[in-house]
Amino acid sequence: MADSAMTLSEHLARPQSSSSPTHKSVAIVIERFGRLAVEIAQELAHAALRGRLGTVGGTNFTGDQVKKMDVWGHEVAVAALRETGVCAAVVSEEAAEPVEMPDAVGPGAVVVCTDPVDGSSNLDVNGSVGTIFGVRAADGKTPAAAAALGPGTQQLAAGYVMYGPSTTLVYTAGHGTHGFTLDRASGEFRLTHPDIRIPRRGKVYGINEGNGHTWHPGQRAFVEHLKAQDKATGRPYSLRYSGAMVADVHRTLLDGGLFMYPADWSDPKKPKAKLRLLYEVAPMGMVVEQAGGRASTGLERALDVVATEYHQRASIILGSPDDVAMADEFYRR
Ligand code: AFP
């Protein structure tokens, strides 16, 4: 990486970006996520030394075990977004109700949906975790968070940070998907992956196959198809799964293939998804689409799923466009 590579702040200030108040707010929020990521990366690196691993005891309102880093991540993320002065509400994985920020009003105000520390079951084993965010325009109504409800197509921007061997920030504001790597010496994110284009087809699929018995028949048949041997069509695909959506989506974005978390169809009248629509499925769907990929639930485009609740769940099949199209075909059979 050249030291001269563009910084995240420079990239966000490019002249081709719109100069409307809302777009300025989007740039402020993404830039703030960059600075927050430096803080989170530092804390993750020292969590074992500072007694920050493990659970706080008990589960959150969605029934997940709450890790100490989840709580800490939520608090620093909310404080950081409040400080921007442009964020009117935050929908966070760790709070049952959105956090309203009435001081941020005006034409450029935005609403942010985030999972500050996603994949937290990886924390205690020093695996990769991430931060995911989606940004929407506040519509001036009260409560401001209600602007987060609606389809994912309403997102102005989305992105994630991956805390792995290096800290990587990937974002889209609707003009392609761009990746930055943290230069730890200067604390700056520098552009290392400009205008990411996902391969049309991949050779890898990522899914929690232990849940196979609960899947929709089309999903089961599709995974069997990926595992079948056929040299001409590049099968079998290899399986890679980390347990942290950010790490699995990042690999898929760069190398192609699929990341999938299908719903549990044990009761076909009430399919139950696991991942959260507002701060997992919709942001990642936008990032992948802006890189030329596709994101589907198997039954519809993921970005068309309308959120009616803040912590709504949705299934996801995202990745290389030809691979996702093939998955959709299996669901239609
Ligand atoms: P946690 O933050 O509770 O670890 O959940 C992570 C996650 O929402 C997503 O990042 C992973 O892809 C997915 O769950 C992993 O779920 P399984 O452990 O059920 O495979």
The global form is: globular
Uncertain runs are none
The hetero compounds bound to this protein are: 1,6-di-O-phosphono-alpha-D-fructofuranose
Largest sheet: 8 strands, mixed
Helical/strand content category: alpha+beta
Residues in helix, %: 25-40%
pLDDT averaged over residues:
95
Instruction: Tell me the strand order in the biggest sheet.
Output: 4-3-5-6-8-9-10-11
Total number of β-strand segments?
17
What would you report as the Rg, rounded to the nearest angstrom? 19 Å
Could you tell me how far the N terminus lies from the C terminus, measured between alpha carbons in angstroms? 47 Å
N-to-C SSE series?
HHEEHEEEEEEEEEEHEHEHEEEH
Number of helices: 7
Beta-strand residue fraction: 15-25%
Report on this structure.
With 333 residues, this protein is of the alpha+beta class. The strands form 4 sheets. It has an 8-stranded mixed beta sheet, with helices on both faces. A hairpin with a 4-residue loop joins β9 and β10. The protein is globular, with a radius of gyration of 19 Å. The N and C termini lie far apart (47 Å). The mean pLDDT is 95. The chain binds 1,6-di-O-phosphono-alpha-D-fructofuranose (AFP). 1,6-di-O-phosphono-alpha-D-fructofuranose binds next to loops.
